[in-house]
Write a structure and sequence with these properties.
The complex is a heterodimer of chains A (324) and B (393). Chain A is an all-alpha fold and 324 residues long. Chain A has a domain of 226 residues. Chain A contains 15 helices and four strands. The longest helix of chain B is centred in the C-terminal third of the chain and has 22 residues. With 393 residues, chain B is an alpha/beta fold. Chain B is globular. Chain B is built from 13 helices and 14 strands. The chains are: A mainly alpha (324), B alpha/beta (393). Chains A and B meet through helix 2 of A and helix 3 and helix 4 of B.
């Protein structure tokens, strides 16, 4: 199934139908925006895992660094919010450079090393009280601004901003995948040794993927800081910013382009809007059971199931067309 | 016919003049919102606060029966700031007029920010971080603060006549500020203080306790943290048995749940508490609370329930006062709350221009064989303190 046939309806739903139906409901728009925050991290994580072949347990570090960079720039240096969010992406990329020694490691060793880095960044944020506010964190972080007459500080405005960040991340992911770099990365996935022998700079490519993934996560973290107007080290570097996106990516299908986005939207919205209403305490149990079932029944995730359904549907349609 | 009408009108007029006919002119149902951690790491304290809030709503409904009614809508924020914000937004969309609840400064900060944006009053006891009340939010109120806890601990330690105290404190905002406050107060009184900061994720406290035992050689250990920190510190101390005369903690320690779930670990340990456990309610206000609480729940309330109760009762009374003057909104409820100056289960409550209660001073309780006795101040004590005394000695 072509990417266009998946993205076109998804884009119509997200850019037209959702704002049209729910723009008056701040609560729902806030929920969807939060789901998109998770989607953005899930996408960045999947990019690193799928193209770079690295399983990261430390994306909370990029998220936190991005969030703090943007918050501090806007609060202490009066940098415009949107510009600060872009700089925050570079800040997170810079943080990823410090993690590069870990690229020499593979599999669980890399995962654990990057987890340790995330913890180091959290301690730094706690200890650098004069910049980050220490354990107390930062309150009243500036809202997203009014830009060209439109107030991005509203829930609808925030939704549009995070939707654009996720869409741009999808485009970047798609372009990398289609490029010669993407081909080399795919080959590395099968046999890193073989690709090194034919001259592919494997470590360099993995480093680029780490930087790109960190940039996306940093921008998402920066968005969240201006969306929720609050940060403290425990929240900004919380393991939840790593675990839930991983769950979302695997649930949606982390080897696909839009699987992580669909996964994040599904698990967050289903959990908060449906399961939580059914079971106010302990609703995570339903989500856990669903995730377990999904991994057993469709290890590739949700998107392949949807794709197969579409294929069957279109085959039936074609058959009926031929019969008639 | 005319005679009949005149007779009827006369009867109604007479009834009104004798106050026999009561017609509530603007009977209204006031919808309150509550976000609180009923799951996650703060579930224990959140549940306590929640039960206090429900008791207050029950008391308000009984008091204004036939005139007005109160209802509270609650959403579990799962101990997460983002979910607390969503909860506030959802509750606003459901028509709540004010918020009561919340626990932990890190959650109350963004949640009260969301309430502020929605022009709703937000009252709490769960966050004592200084910056919360410095944001210029007209509708933010809290009945307690760091200083009130600190003053109680300084008073207790001064009464004990200790000369050297080790303070073990978590690196969170509220705990750091409280540790600094207590250090300043005790140092001015001539007490030597040795501080040990620990990370909020610390599980094993043996190395810190060993330092206190072998290096500090203090007379008491003051713990400024949260439930899991206290349990970790007390377990390590019980194992290593430093020669201290007292183990003292602050909030979330002298609670009924700690007394019943960790009776041997808590023995002789001090913590802040407004009332003893099981509670000996003596005043009429205390009895009203206790009756309302035990009608719904089968355990004895601790300070968490009492504080949740007090803040909600104050909010409810402010809403009624605002309503009687014609309008219920952020401005009018805030104005009425600022007029508050009364003795409550949480001591005297009066709000300053920032919504803080400068009159707040905690009391100190001591765990004693599954009970909690109030041992400080003298005016409120229910028993003499078992001093020196630790869980292992």
């Amino acid at each position: 199934m072509s990417n266009f046939r998946i993205f076109a309806p998804l884009a119509i739903v997200m850019y037209i139908i959702v704002p049209f139906l729910f723009s008056g409901n701040d609560y729902l728009m806030g929920m969807i925006a939060t789901a998109l925050i998770i989607a953005g991290i899930a996408l960045a994580w999947a990019l690193l895992g799928n193209l770079g072949g690295m399983v990261s347990f430390g994306h909370a570090a990029f998220f936190g660094v991005g969030a703090y960079t943007s918050a501090v720039l806007t609060m202490d240096y009066n940098v415009p919010v949107f510009l600060a969010m872009i700089i925050a992406g570079f800040g997170a990329s810079l943080a990823s450079v410090f993690m590069m020694p870990a690229l020499r490691l593979h599999g669980p060793y890399f995962a654990l090393a990057i987890l340790a880095y995330a913890h180091i960044f959290m301690i730094l944020a706690t200890e650098m009280t004069s910049i980050t506010g220490g354990a107390a964190g930062l309150l009243s972080i500036p809202n997203l601004p009014v830009f060209m007459g439109f107030d991005f500080g509203t829930k609808l405005g925030g939704y549009i901003v995070i939707l654009n960040i996720v869409s741009l991340a999808l485009v970047v992911y798609h372009l990398i995948r289609r490029s010669t770099y993407g081909l080399a990365l795919k080959a590395m996935h099968d046999s890193e040794l073989a690709t090194r022998i034919v001259g592919v700079p494997a470590t360099q490519l993995k480093a680029i993927m780490l930087v790109v993934s960190a940039f996306i996560t940093g921008c998402v973290g920066a968005f969240n800081a201006h969306f929720i107007n609050f940060l403290d080290p425990e929240y900004a570097f919380s393991g939840e910013w790593t675990v839930i996106p991983i769950v979302a990516a695997i649930f949606g299908g982390y080897r696909t382009l839009s699987g992580p986005v669909l996964g994040a939207l599904f698990i967050y919205l289903a959990d908060q809007l449906v399961f939580k209403s059914l079971l106010p305490q302990g609703h995570q149990l339903i989500l856990g059971a669903l995730l377990g079932g999904m991994i057993l029944l469709s290890p590739s995730g949700l998107l392949p199931i949807i794709t197969n359904m579409f294929k069957r549907f279109s085959k039936k349609g074609d058959a009926q067309h031929v019969e008639s | 016919m005319n005679k009949h009408i005149i007779k009827s009108l006369s009867a109604v007029a007479l009834g009104l003049s004798l106050n026999l006919v009561s017609v509530p002119a603007f009977a209204e149902n006031f919808l309150l919102g509550e976000h609180t951690p009923l799951s996650g790491k703060l579930a224990r304290v959140g549940t306590g606060s929640h039960r206090g809030i429900l008791s207050a709503v029950k008391v308000l409904n009984e008091k204004y029966n036939g005139q007005h009614s109160f209802e509270v809508k609650t959403i579990d924020d799962e101990s997460s700031p983002a979910k607390a914000v969503s909860a506030v937004e959802k509750l606003v969309s459901q028509g709540v007029i004010a918020f009561t609840g919340g626990y932990s400064s890190g959650i109350i900060g963004p949640a009260s920010e969301a309430a502020h944006k929605a022009n709703r009053v937000y009252i709490t006891f769960g966050g004592v971080a200084g910056p919360l009340s410095k944001r210029g939010h007209e509708g933010f109120f809290r009945i307690n603060n760091t200083a009130g806890y600190g003053k109680a601990i300084i008073g207790l330690i001064s009464d004990m006549g200790l000369k050297k105290v080790s303070i073990l404190y978590s690196n969170k905002e509220a705990t750091v500020k409280t540790a600094e406050f207590v250090e300043k107060g005790l140092t001015e009184g001539g007490v030597t203080i040795i501080k040990h900061e620990f990370d909020g994720h610390t599980k094993d406290f043996k190395s810190i306790i060993n330092k206190v035992k072998l290096q500090d050689k203090s007379e008491a250990i003051l713990m400024v943290g949260y439930e899991t920190d206290y349990i970790g510190i007390l377990r390590a101390a019980k194992l290593l048995k430093p020669k201290v005369k007292a183990m003292i903690g602050i909030w979330s320690l002298a609670t009924g749940k700690m007394a019943t779930e960790f009776p041997t670990l808590m023995e002789n340990v001090y913590g802040t508490s407004m009332l003893p456990f099981p509670v000996a309610f003596t005043t009429s206000e205390q009895k009203v609370f206790h009756t309302a609480y035990t009608a719904e729940f089968d355990n004895e309330p601790s300070y968490l329930e009492q504080f949740g109760y007090v803040q909600t009762l104050l909010l409810g009374e402010a809403i009624i006062a605002a309503h009687s003057k014609g309008e219920v909104n952020l401005k009018t409820i805030s104005e009425e709350l600022r007029k508050t100056d009364q003795m409550t289960l949480a001591g005297r409550v009066r709000f300053d221009e920032n919504g803080d209660n400068p009159e707040f001073v905690q009391r100190v309780g001591q765990h004693r064989t599954g009970k909690i006795e109030i041992v400080w101040p003298l005016s409120a004590k229910t028993s003499d303190k078992a001093f020196p005394g630790t869980p292992w000695n």
